[in-house]
Amino acid sequence: MSSNIYSVAAKARQSRPIDPSEPFDVSSVKGKTILITGGGSGFGAAFFRKWAAAGANVIIGDVDDSKGESIVRAVRIATDNNNHHFIHCDVTDWQSQVSFFKAATKLSPHGGIDAVVANAGISDLNPTFNTPKNLDMDEPPKPNMQVIDVNLVGVLYTTHLALFYLPRNPGSQPVDPNKRLGGADQSSRDRHLLLIGSLASLCPIPHQTLYGTAKHGVMGLFRSLRCTAFTSGVRVNLICPYFVETPIINGPGRAVLAGANLAKIEDVVEAASRLMSDTSINGRSLVVGPPLKLVETEEGEWQYSGRDQNGISTEVSLWEVHADDLENTDVFIRRIVHLMNAAHEMNGWLKWTKDLGRALLIMVEDTTRISYWRRRN
């Protein structure tokens, strides 16, 4: 990774690209307190079971009290650990999320939160944002914005709270791509926010306008945060699963996907576990797709083979996306800074003096205007 003064990747503490063949140890989550929104079913429930079995203390939030309480009871018995908890949480309700984080902090064995997974999400069962079928109406019906509220606004609420609570985690250390912290070591706690995107974060899905808009927003959130969250020592990562066999795929969706390869939920859990347990990974995003047999061409491109070709095929289910954004930014900054410096040198001290004088004049005018307004009121 470049370390020169223009390197955004270095300043954002982005870790090196992920090598899916590298082993990782999920047991490093032992002793961590992990919060998961939407933890009663789907990905959230699968994450819960995996990390709880590895020794983490997991606190889930969900609107479905029955599912949430049921899975917590089962996992407590399976792990012989009563530090797993369910708290009712409606991610679209700010105060509900505030209560979730406050209660979780009190329930945490060490009084802090090590990781937050912004997992809660719904699919658009009845898309209403497309062209109305009846164009003879005086006006179209108001669209149902629940998908935006859950999948984007809810994620923003979770993120905002995570960026407040994670740096307050007792004994935690700022993100460092060159160091892996021991999860069970109370003196070196983690600060990790894991966002859950989708294939819809990268490309449109027909008739899923609001869902795609929300998931594109999650991708935009990730790309922005990985340039700024490091200032609070928080590492931020993202997974974007392809279509996976979960309840979120409705009947029409299953009909469209009939005959297609689907991603495996265990691969999604594996990808999330890699990001969760390896504390050196920061600013990385993984697409989780169906396992495919691929052959690398002479040009370095992957080509689908469909079968093992004499042992030279490689099974791939993980791809890193937007991996070089910050490096490309570096190139832009080098160019723009060079041009700006050249222009500055040509302008000389005369323009600098004029600009500074203009700035001071504006400041005086603003102060005078404010004083006049205060006297009048």
- Identify the CATH class of the largest domain: Alpha Beta
Overall domain count:
2
Q: What's the Cα radius of gyration?
A: 24 Å
Query: Termini, distance in Å?
Result: 57 Å
The CATH topology of the largest domain:
Rossmann fold
User: What is the share of helical residues?
Assistant: 40-55%
Question: How would you summarize the topology of this molecule?
Answer:
Elements: H1 8-11, E1 33-37, H2 42-53, E2 57-62, H3 65-79, E3 85-88, H4 94-107, E4 115-118, H5 146-165, E5 192-196, H6 209-225, E6 235-241, H7 251-256, H8 265-277, E7 285-296, E8 302-304, E9 314-320, H9 325-376
Main features:
377 residues, alpha/beta, Rossmann fold, 2 domains, 9-stranded mixed β-sheet, 41% helix, globular
Describe the structure concisely.
This protein is an alpha/beta fold and 377 residues long.
Word description of this protein:
By secondary structure, the protein is an alpha/beta fold. The relative contact order is 0.13. It folds into two domains: 8-323, Rossmann fold (3-Layer(aba) Sandwich), CATH 3.40.50.720; 324-377, no CATH class. Residues 183-187 have low confidence and may be disordered. It is globular. It starts with 7 loop residues before the first helix and ends with a helix. It is built from nine helices and nine strands. It has helices spanning 8-11, 42-53, 65-79, 94-107, 146-165, 209-225, 251-256, 265-277, 325-376; strands at 33-37, 57-62, 85-88, 115-118, 192-196, 235-241, 285-296, 302-304, 314-320. Strand 7 and strand 8 (302-304) form a beta hairpin. Helix 2 crosses helix 8 (265-277) and helix 5 packs parallel to helix 6 (209-225). Strands 1, 2, 3, 4, 5, 6, 7, 8 and 9 form a nine-stranded mixed β-sheet that branches.
